[in-house]
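Protein folds are increasingly written down as discrete tokens. With that in mind, we are printing a sequence and the tokens encoding its fold.
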Amino acid sequence: MALVVALSAAAACTPVFRNHGYVPTEQDLSQIEVGRSTRETVADTVGRPGSVGVLDAGGWYYVQSRFRHYGYRAPQEIDREIVAISFNDAGVVENVERFGLEDGRVVALSRRVTDSNIKGITFLRQLFGNLGRISAADLEN
């Protein structure tokens, strides 16, 4: 009986990792040509995204998160990656960017752009902006 209790306690302390979402690999993204590929070719190459820019119809966003579940504690997000593909008015790829989450801040991991103006950053700032800002006191009010 003691062995069963000990094994149950050990299993409860083992972290469980879960992945949510989808981000295309670098190999898949290398097939997308900035200035040449269109929405249709991007959809054929890497698939349609789970998120699309709401305010400007120019961006597709692929989001993947990794969570650690540890015993009775609430799940903790330990990694997040976003691939943002923006299109011009004609539906041609303008930018391909990969962002990561480092210390609660958005970090550009890779970027292929046709101009220096980064579009869609407001969506990413919104996505990452509230991370860690909500406290129990905010929820009570």
Q: What stands out?
A: The CA atoms of residues 105 and 128 lie 7 Å apart. The first helix runs from residue 2 to 12. The longest strand covers residues 76-87.
